[in-house]
């Protein structure tokens, strides 16, 4: 039974990763955090806690890609963030992990469909976040194209580690 739940959780995570890039959409799915058979991150690299000999990946591991221009590719930055212990190649993993611990997986959920957002432009910045937070798979895209997007971006600014410049900053 435990193997079936683990397989289902991993299948869900793979399917979610394959569906990425859907304009502001995010998924937050519960998963079985009680078992893990892999010491690899979503990018296929060995995680620090697995490398430290624990054999289990961290409960929080995120791949974060940001861009600060409309063209995107020229200035794209990608980081790996792991927590407990804080690590990866994120420029300030300890501060980013503190924000993730405070906000939880729900910070990566989209705003409710009926939420009214101010029509203001905060800049061309975009970000994509995939991975797990406290064992919960997350996948989201963020931008600064309206008030809701700006608020989400600002709440996760330390995690995104992307400079904000230009209009609306």
Would you write up a description of this structure?
By secondary structure, the chain is α+β, with helices and mostly antiparallel strands. 27% of the residues lie in helices and 24% in strands. The protein is built from five helices and six strands. It has a six-stranded antiparallel β-sheet with strand order 1-6-5-2-3-4, sandwiched between helices. Strand 5 and strand 6 form a beta hairpin. The radius of gyration is 16 Å and the shape is globular. Residues 1-53 have low confidence and may be disordered.
Helix and strand layout, with pairings?
Layout: H1 2-18, E1 26-28, H2 48-51, E2 60-67, E3 77-83, E4 87-88, H3 93-103, E5 123-133, E6 136-144, H4 147-155, H5 157-160
Antiparallel strand pairs: 1-6, 2-3, 2-5, 3-4, 5-6
Features:
169 residues, alpha+beta, six-stranded antiparallel beta sheet, 5 helices, 27% helix, globular
């Amino acid at each position: 039974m435990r193997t079936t739940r683990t397989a289902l959780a991993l299948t869900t995570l793979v399917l979610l990763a394959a569906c990425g890039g859907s304009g502001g959409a995010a998924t937050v799915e519960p998963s079985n955090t009680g078992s893990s058979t892999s010491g690899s991150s979503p990018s296929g690299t060995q995680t620090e806690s697995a490398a430290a000999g624990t054999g289990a990946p961290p409960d929080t591991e995120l791949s974060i890609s940001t861009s600060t221009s409309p063209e995107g590719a020229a200035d794209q930055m990608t980081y790996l963030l792991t927590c407990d212990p804080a690590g990866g190649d994120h420029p300030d993993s300890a501060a980013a992990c503190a924000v993730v611990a405070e906000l939880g997986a729900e910070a990566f959920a989209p705003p409710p469909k009926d939420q009214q957002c101010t029509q203001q432009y905060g800049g061309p910045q975009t970000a994509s976040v995939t991975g797990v937070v406290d064992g919960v798979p997350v996948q989201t895209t963020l931008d600064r194209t309206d008030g809701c997007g700006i608020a989400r971006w600002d709440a996760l600014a330390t995690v995104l580690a992307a400079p904000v410049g230009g209009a609306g900053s």
